[in-house]
């Protein structure tokens, strides 16, 4: 791998500084939210909007990330879906939260135990996978009815090798139970930018490919969540290899 | 004969983990913990019961699986069930 350039060091410093500042600002402002004379749903909507703009700002401002979006179906993210994506780098979280303000992300338990991230996750009504998908079904149903999409990394953790690992079934279970579209996103290049275990943001081309929505009545990937989890993984591996 | 039978059971369980659950081969070791190492979750357990019933012709309760922590526990559990 090439030596780290000055631009990469500056970009990394800027990104981490903005991330810490943004998170800290959220911690300071969250307790004051209860004094804002707006309905709770409206306040949460504004909070989600802030998260969305913050991540867009970070991604588009970062001078070492070239972003290439492939959107053959002209996806607008307006209709709720279970959004699934492969997971190779911490940057993937930025990539999936910058599509629409109406996003709920499934997080790991450690996020909830983190003072700063936990507060943000709780206020934003994010979900903790440790709760079990069966127990999240009702909450998720309410959010989908409000127009939110739910982002899940079905691998459950970042891949060490860059290969798309086994998919857990939770995303497909929720889509089946809630009769919701599955919207797969292929993320390519974030591993080259910030591989697992590394911190410096390296110059790289990041490609996001939005695959066509898979409707609940579409049986081409199987007619149950178990088959769909396997077949959609194989489909995403093929699409990943095409990039 | 009993040894061969257990080997068959082990091979069959490994095949289920590898093909049905797409677990990486290097993770399928007797000492691997199902939840911690293999990351079997609650939905997998439901499928696991179905797979065991289908492949071994056994009736399994979810409570039976509650005490199974490792892959070896699974081998032992099926062997005991099969051999009565």
Key features?
heterodimer; A: 243 residues; alpha/beta; 7-stranded mixed β-sheet; 9 helices; 14% strand; B: 84 residues; mainly alpha; 0% strand
Describe the structure.
The complex is a heterodimer of chains A (243) and B (84). With 243 residues, chain A is α/β, with parallel strands linked by helices. Chain A is 46% helix and 14% strand. The longest helix of chain A has 24 residues, at 6-29. Helix content of chain B is 61%, strand content 0%. Chain B has four helices and no strands. Chain B starts with a helix and ends with a helix. The mean pLDDT of chain B is 86. At the A-B interface, α9 of A face α2 of B.
Number of helices of chain A: 9
End-to-end C-alpha gap of chain B? 15 Å
Q: List how many beta strands of chain A DSSP finds.
A: 7
The profile of the biggest β sheet of chain A is: 7 strands, mixed
In short:
The complex is a heterodimer of chains A (243) and B (84). Chain A has 243 residues and is an alpha/beta fold.
What's the layout of helices and strands?
The complex is a heterodimer of chains A (243) and B (84).
Chain A: H1 6-29, H2 40-61, E1 65-70, E2 82-85, H3 91-97, E3 103-107, H4 109-113, H5 115-123, E4 127-128, H6 133-145, E5 149-152, H7 170-178, E6 182-188, H8 190-193, E7 204-210, H9 225-242
Parallel strand pairs in A: 1-7, 2-5, 2-6, 3-4, 3-5
Antiparallel strand pairs in A: 6-7
Helix pairs in contact in A: 1-5, 6-7, 7-9
Chain B: H1 2-20, H2 42-56, H3 62-66, H4 71-82
Helix pairs in contact in B: 1-4
